[in-house]
Amino acid sequence: MNNIFIGLGSNLSDPIQQVLMAMEALQAIPEIAVVQKSSLYASPPMGPQDQPDYINAVVELSSDLSAHALLDCLQAIEQQQGRVRLRHWGERTLDLDILVFGEHEINDERLVIPHPGIIERAFVLYPLAEIAPDLIIPQFGHIVPLVQNCSRSGLNKINLDLI
Prior knowledge:
Layout: E1 2-10, H1 15-27, E2 32-37, E3 41-43, E4 54-63, H2 67-80, E5 95-101, E6 106-107, E7 112-113, H3 122-131, E8 136-137, E9 141-142, H4 143-148, E10 156-157
Antiparallel strand pairs: 1-4, 1-5, 2-4, 3-4, 3-10, 6-7, 8-9
């Protein structure tokens, strides 16, 4: 079994609901066990600023699926939730990224693991550290110094009890 971390993000069509529905969709896949879920976080968009803020989270999975089979599952969930790819770093109903896949390193035409932007993105690092404070990310090392070197500017944890 591989311990896998997935980044979830949405900024269209009720983003909080989109992320929660994606978590439920992951739990419904028989070959996947959802181990932990982070809190939800609001963050400003990367790239084009003429779009709404994002809602982000990270989930830890356990699975025997290959990384490419898992990618197929994630893309199917994105499609089920109406993902349309209009522009790079543009708005989206749902974005699911494999951040870490056990100790594996993959670099091919479909997939790069660990995710290449993982150490630069507060909306990934902070929820990841919340659920896996002892994680060692292949190529990058222990998560604690990575978080310490990443500005939290604009990132806000969401209290679902207030919604």
